[in-house]
From TrEMBL, chains A, B, C:
This is Amidohydrolase family protein. It comes from the Bacteria. It comes from Gulosibacter faecalis. It holds the Pfam family Amidohydro_2. InterPro entries: Amidohydro-rel, Metal_Hydrolase.
Length: 387, 387, 387
């Protein structure tokens, strides 16, 4: 800390929202699917490698795998298979240098590894976040198969299961954005309405996909009543989302209604509504946000998006996440681009307004690690005496 | 004007929308409240000083009070009390170097000083803007207490009082954004609907808070009919606002309906909808805008926001305001950051496109002073032979 | 390609959406009208020259006409008349150095020249895009005048005429943004509803202005069924548009419904929703976008807007257009600013992430020319053996 230039290479990072990685080798089509939010293959005549994130993979991950920067996509995939998924994952996750993985376990869990395996691969601590909608779907599938199951039982069992999961998990997540949008009634639904919706769910055949507004609102209010940290998918995602209905400002009334509950909301990704998220984090004491997967997917432009996230929100309300899923490249790039973009932004503030180096470092530690440790009440670095 | 580098240190500024300052000393909690738009204290574990505006106070106001830059918050507050509110106000307002204060007198007037006192403290000229909703509330409280008061009397008295105030005031302001949002019917309400709303208002007990859409629309149309300059709070504000209902584009039909009325609309703040405001200022001849309080609250990032405000809108349609309230720091920082950000933007345009220095200066004078002087019909510098 | 600095001066450009130029001389008021999207003259006390695009004309077009940069507006207009419209058009269009004009012929065609004349003036190839609403209006005006015309005949005749036009045109355009906004029902309307709307259209007297949602949706679905390239006006335009109803995200359901149709959507302009457009181009394989007229009208700031357009969207989904109409200055400035802004953005990416020069050039060619050539199936440079 005696030099003048800010260096965040070893800034401790609490990746408060990410998923596991694939442990099997992938072919080019699968890999292109992993580096895109679209549920569809690239348009004829194009490749997913010709994108900001694709160029980042070639620029920065290729050397980690022992290739020259900007290796051709096919060469990159060949090298990936040559090393094998385990070695690739290990190299990229170690390079990511993440202190804590906050693993959200509700998305496509069958394809990827679990929290403990992630932590081992990445030589890191971990904690778990429970996806509310997946929990309800799993409980409903179980209850449905029991003889004489009632809606009341389902409602009770969801609550019991949530309580059990919260004995270990540090928070919950909702994907209301994908399922119902944010233009929902903010009031806590009554028991009878919840049971009616639960009854309909039990009558559904086949794999369940929860998209009932009453039940989703009920899940959110269960979490509010438990003073949980509630991760909310906001903004940018795949083509399943109606993005205009996922503007975080549509949550304003729910946030107002829950401001004194003890619950805290961590708004994820938020692009292209990250300025709106910064406003909410400013005016509501229980709102936090990150720009999550937007960092990876804007690539060389992420420095601008990161800078835009540092406007209205107090520095104690901004978090870091990679939102990485499946490909170990996304953890590495998420941290690389975050460290770089935050460094550039803080250096610019120092240049303009003389921010002392110690203050730059303090703000970086808050955003990179300490805010999440405080919000989630999980601070392994402090427990290790290292923070 | 013989050097090549643009210097806006002494650019005359017409701060067309601001308020008074507190004349008493404040403790840390009060001061933190003044440097935030939130109605709530900072979250546990955080302070309002750890924000863009907090860092600006420490960076630039501390030296004005005789401290080192980035003095600790408690030292800053101690020094503030040591000097006393009057000296602090005088130093910071003189440093702000504002030529004209356009004081909006309808917000929390009991806590702050009045226009004439502000002008004396800042060694500046001043003019007044009347807040429509406050005027109506004050009239209604008075009429309500008179024996046999009728709704018709209230409607008439609002109009008479407005006319009386407009003999001195240069414009009006509406906070429809806070009270009803912008998704209201743009048509002029009829007399009977207005009287029905007025009757309901008279039946209300206790302090009045006008949030009746008919009456608020009526007030706006009274101002349109009088060809007033109408300041409109737009976008970012405190947690009382539903920000998604304050997008200025929602005013499009009202603007279209009033385009030939002689009234002019000055859209205030507008963040994060400042590009949308720039569009409206481009296509509607009677629309102007500023980025007001967004400059202070984005701090080191204000240069980016200022640059974004210089896109679609013709240079004759952009205004300056600090929207400062209560803390003299906000006037000083508002002018410092505006001068700096405008200088940087114009210098970049010169670098890219060869804008001559005289043209840079001319555009700066328009935005800083001349546009407001023309729109409000108030030009004390010209009257003094100094502009 | 042996130097290190990217040079896009001679990058081939496919201007996939533009119009013709005026062939007569214009006075100052007319010229000010051409360099603004507003339907109204500049506000008293201001001029359209005091704007980003006005400064661009003085900075870069004045020298093409043999004047010093930043010539006074009146001197510029005088010189323009002295040279004559034909010489001015020829100089500016040659300087624009456009390879292909994609001319949309449905806007104010009586005032401007046609595609073949444009191509001759600009020494370029050309192709045509048909405006759906104008086509329907023209057919309806013709059918209406025929004795015993029926709604069914009108519906059939629109379809026949569209098919005939598509024998030559490379795509269609819709101005649903202006006429009905994007918050329309995405379903294909039934024949009887279409005929009812057609009947109402036939009963209208005087010049027709199609603003019937059913008919406009019908036109769009006709184009989807024909697997057309469909240009969609999105975002920023004149004061006739309700901009908040032209957010491209409002098209999400229509895009979802048409994803496997073979049709492709090219979203035009998109400002200030260009990030939203980039998201759609990322997740939907049949969506493309440009930032069109926003480049000209943000002038010195266009480099920022261009950079923002290079975030989420794969590089194979971004297009170039000038959206120039009437004034030859707008073609020249559109290409100048696009080449410059793209160069700056790619150079920055190279600086940050080591993009090789060949990759910068490849991405530039895709965006400037090749994406449009592939999407529209029109590639005269390849046919000439020059691409």
């Amino acid at each position: 800390m005696s030099t003048d230039a800010l260096d965040l290479t070893n800034l401790p990072l609490f990746d408060h929202h990410c998923h596991g990685v694939l442990t099997n080798d992938v072919d080019r089509a699968e890999f292109e699917g992993l580096i895109s939010e679209s549920s569809r293959p690239a348009t004829d005549g194009t490749t997913r490698f010709d994108s900001q994130v694709g160029f980042q993979v070639r620029a920065h991950c290729a050397p980690i795998l022992g290739l020259e920067p900007f290796a051709a996509p096919d060469d990159y995939l060949a090298r990936r298979r040559e090393l094998g998924a385990d070695e690739v994952n290990r190299r990229l996750l170690r390079a990511a240098n993440i202190a804590v993985y906050g693993i959200e376990t509700g998305h496509d869990a069958g394809r990827i590894n679990g929290p403990a395996d992630m932590a081992e691969l990445g030589d890191a601590s971990h904690c778990e976040i429970v996806r509310l909608e997946r929990l309800a779907e799993q409980v409903a599938e179980r209850v449905r198969d029991a003889p004489g199951a009632s809606a009341a039982q389902l409602v009770d069992e969801i609550e019991r299961t949530l309580d059990a999961r919260l004995e270990h998990a540090v928070g919950v997540k909702t994907i209301a954005a994908y399922r119902i949008g944010f233009d929902f009634d903010d009031a806590r639904p009554g028991r009878s309405a919840v049971e009616s919706s639960a009854a309909r769910l039990l009558e559904t055949e086949g794999p369940l996909r929860l998209d009932d507004p009453t039940l989703i609102r009920h899940l959110i209010w269960l979490a509010i009543d438990r003073a949980c940290v509630i991760q909310v998918h906001v903004g940018y995602g795949d083509d399943d989302v109606d993005l205009h209905r996922c503007n975080p400002l549509l949550l304003t009334r729910l946030l107002r209604a829950s401001v004194d509950s003890g619950a805290r909301f961590t708004l994820l990704h938020c692009y292209p509504f990250h300025r709106e998220a910064g406003y909410l984090a400013d005016v509501f004491p229980h709102v936090y946000f990150d720009i999550g997967l937007a960092i990876n997917y804007t690539g060389s432009r992420s420095e601008a998006v990161i800078a835009e996230s540092l406007e209205l929100a107090p520095f104690g309300k901004i978090l870091f996440s990679s939102d990485a899923f499946g490909a170990a490249e996304l953890y590495y790039l998420g941290t690389l681009l975050f460290r770089r973009g935050l460094t550039a932004a803080l250096a610019r503030f120092a240049e303009l307004d003389g921010w002392p180096l110690a203050e730059q470092q303090r703000v970086a530690r808050m955003i990179g690690y300490e805010n999440a440790a405080r919000v989630y009440g999980f601070d392994p670095l402090a427990q290790n005496g290292a923070a």
